[in-house]
Design brief:
The protein is mainly alpha-helical and 64 residues long. It has one domain. It contains 2 helices and no strands. It is elongated, with a radius of gyration of 16 Å. The mean pLDDT is 93. Keywords: Membrane, Transmembrane, Transmembrane helix.
């Protein structure tokens, strides 16, 4: 593991950051498409959160 200039390890590894940002992107796209499909805002948020949560283990396995 690499260390920061101060000698401390990074708060998030690069792998974790990529997985979380990818999951965030997938959740936003899914929520936006759900909203554009005619569902209400609450259902769109739930759909986006579900898509983001489900995509974390999948992205973790795909991105190595």
């Amino acid at each position: 593991m690499t260390t920061a200039p101060g000698g401390e390890p990074p708060f998030l590894t690069l792998h974790t950051a990529v997985v979380l940002f990818g999951s965030l992107f997938i959740g936003l796209v899914a929520g936006g498409l759900t909203f554009l499909g005619g569902s209400g805002a609450a259902l769109s948020v739930l759909g986006g959160l579900t898509a983001a949560g489900v995509s974390v283990p999948v992205l973790r396995g795909l991105i190595r």
